């Protein structure tokens, strides 16, 4: 779903908990064992719930699991929500006797891509009988102006107006929503819990999302930090400029680079907690002081400047 508060449909409820904790990767072993509802049914529940609490949903985008579900498209139509959903090539559409299917001509459009130059793709509308509020489009996967059927995919939408050259670009918002949760799944261990009761699993998810929020707050700074790195490091009195001298520090501009650098910043404290019991057994003069000095330097680090509220 794309809205002012966005989340993908792939993360769905399996219990009557608050909606913001209802999202789980349905491919995980946990969901295979405990999920008692089909994904489209869960999606319908989430759509109704988040609209009931006041979300302003601008657009719903979903893959063919939901596009082929009458329950999902039905509730979207019932609630008058704009949507673009992927459908299979054999998606059934009713035709009256004497009506025919009309394939409009291919038209070029510009598909924006992450970290690459935009590419030219092609799209055409498919009209079953006459044009209805629900519209269908076939889209090429490449820049071939006459693509083969196997090199195309299909979407269905209730958007009105002259949308042919922008509908595919709007659907691609789904990829960015997916990317937002990719780091939660791959880097922070969304499904890597070793727990059995649901309340404990929820707490694990809260920890994961808190970590994700922390890193995301810093990620934008690290993008701009690469542009000012030379200026900061050239100032010998600038302590922050020395952080990037660590051999494992990454000067990249992506989310994973921010995660790596923040892990380096908290390492001294983590290592101190690990070595502290041994220092009680074998005291080493000066080691505690050295660790505390290093931890103090780490505490100076602020990737994203913090603005404190001033009482009037």
- Which value, in Å, is the CA radius of gyration? 26 Å
- Number of folding domains? 2
Structural class: alpha+beta
Multimeric state: single chain
> H/E element string?
HHEHHEEEEEEHHHHH
Shape: elongated
Mean pLDDT: 78
Ends apart, CA distance between termini: 40 Å
Main sheet specs: 7 strands, mixed
Word description of this protein:
With 312 residues, the protein is of the alpha+beta class. It has two domains: 19-186, no CATH class; 198-300, no CATH class. The chain contains nine helices and seven strands; from the N terminus they run ααβααββββββααααα. It has helices at residues 29-34, 39-52, 64-67, 70-78, 167-171, 173-186, 198-233, 255-281, 287-300, and strands at 60-62, 83-87, 101-103, 107-113, 116-128, 135-140, 152-157. Strands 1, 2, 3, 4, 5, 6 and 7 form a seven-stranded mixed β-sheet that branches. The longest helix has 36 residues, at 198-233. It starts with 28 loop residues before the first helix and ends in a 12-residue tail after the last helix. 18% of the residues are buried.
Quick structural overview:
The protein is 41% helix and 14% strand.
Task: Please give a handful of descriptors for the protein shown.
alpha+beta; 2 domains; disordered C terminus
Task: Give the arrangement of secondary structure elements.
Elements: H1 29-34, H2 39-52, E1 60-62, H3 64-67, H4 70-78, E2 83-87, E3 101-103, E4 107-113, E5 116-128, E6 135-140, E7 152-157, H5 167-171, H6 173-186, H7 198-233, H8 255-281, H9 287-300
Parallel strand pairs: 1-2
Antiparallel strand pairs: 2-7, 3-5, 4-5, 5-6, 6-7
Helix pairs in contact: 2-4, 7-8, 8-9
């Amino acid at each position: 779903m794309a809205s002012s508060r966005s989340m993908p449909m792939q993360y769905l409820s399996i219990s009557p908990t608050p909606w913001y904790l209802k999202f789980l990767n349905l491919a995980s072993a946990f969901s295979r064992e405990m999920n008692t509802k089909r994904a489209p049914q869960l999606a319908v529940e989430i759509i109704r719930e988040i609209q009931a609490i006041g979300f302003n949903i601008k657009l719903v985008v979903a893959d063919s699991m939901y596009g082929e579900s009458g329950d999902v498209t039905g509730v979207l139509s019932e609630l008058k929500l704009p949507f673009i959903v992927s459908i299979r090539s054999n998606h059934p559409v009713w035709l009256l006797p004497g009506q025919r299917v009309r394939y409009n001509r291919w038209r070029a459009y510009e598909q924006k891509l992450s970290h690459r130059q935009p590419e030219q793709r092609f799209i055409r509308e498919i009209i079953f009988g006459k044009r209805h509020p629900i519209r269908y489009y076939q889209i090429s996967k490449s820049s071939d102006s006459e693509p083969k059927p196997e090199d195309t995919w299909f979407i269905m939408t209730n958007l009105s107006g002259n949308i042919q050259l922008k509908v595919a670009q709007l659907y691609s918002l789904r990829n960015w929503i997916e990317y937002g949760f990719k780091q939660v799944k791959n880097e922070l261990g969304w499904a890597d819990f070793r727990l059995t009761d649901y309340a404990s699993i929820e707490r694990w998810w809260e920890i994961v999302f808190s970590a994700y929020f922390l890193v995301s707050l810093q990620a934008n700074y690290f993008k701009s930090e690469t542009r000012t790195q030379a200026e900061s490091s050239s100032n010998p009195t600038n302590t922050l400029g020395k952080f990037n001298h660590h051999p494992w520090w990454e000067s990249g501009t992506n989310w994973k680079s921010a995660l790596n650098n923040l892990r380096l910043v908290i390492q001294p404290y983590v290592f101190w907690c690990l070595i502290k019991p041994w220092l009680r057994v074998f005291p080493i003069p000066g080691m505690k002081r050295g660790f505390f000095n290093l931890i103090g330097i780490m505490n100076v680090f602020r990737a994203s400047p913090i603005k404190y509220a001033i009482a009037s």
